[in-house]
């Protein structure tokens, strides 16, 4: 294992049987091999509770190095676990190739069809799962199966969607940045969902049956397929829960802040807000408030938007429970290619 931080209770091997789960990812031509390698390693071989299945949807053509990596991944995964975790079965690797790129929502819907288990965890191909992610969230998912209070009139039913806080980083995961917290559950989370997404998508674990019942990821929601899915599930009285521990390192850089702004992004979000009001998820007043907030954020220059974003997150975090102190972030996986700084050092 490459992780040498302090071992906490959630880092240890679970003592009772836990349900198997699938890790669902999608890769496309805009990803890099380095990002994909790191995401796969952190979500499998570096986990103290690995998934039973890894599903990667290849969303259209990808560079040759990524294709070679995908082709060899089943055998590579078997070797990793045979050498480093001989007491654990290696995850089954399912690569689903799509000839054309139809967007993330379509890729995830196709991927859902290949997921063997009821519990499905999501991961983006440019993020990093901390080693205790699944050992923390899967037991809590099971333990909380009848304790969440969100949405159902009688307060009963199992948790359907469980997310966590995330910690940002910019390229170098050894320099983690701001933590993004969300309300835990109940009325506070329901109120928050009428303004912003109630779940950090890269951190989520959900029940496959609940997502299928809601119609899967909407493929006509632009870049907001996850938010629209959560809206549908909340209207179906699905149970949501967030844990305050940051379990995912979420990659942010200049390009990420650029993607958050611009007129086209604002137009997509206006359409989303209109659909929320039409569905009865938000009121006309909330619709007007949300559009005004989005206009002020999406249409400002990037430098101002970036400062405003961090200020908003700081304010929100201050209103919520403080995030627990975390161990040192994991080192780069030993199965990765060296990063650019390491290349430069070895060449000098």
From TrEMBL:
Glycosyltransferase 2-like domain segment(s): 38-146
Origin superkingdom: Bacteria
Any one GO molecular function term: glycosyltransferase activity
Disordered as annotated region, ranges: 316-348
InterPro entries documented for this protein: Glyco_trans_2-like, Glycosyltransf_2, Nucleotide-diphossugar_trans
Keywords assigned by UniProt, alphabetized: Glycosyltransferase, Transferase
Segments crossing the lipid bilayer: none
UniProt key word Transferase: yes
Pfam families in alphabetical order: Glycos_transf_2
Acidic residues composition bias: residue spans: 339-348
Cross-referenced Gene3D superfamilies: Spore Coat Polysaccharide Biosynthesis Protein SpsA, Chain A (3.90.550.10)
Keyword flag Transcription regulation: no
Sequence similarity: Belongs to the glycosyltransferase 2 family.
Name used for this protein in its record: Glycosyl transferase family 2
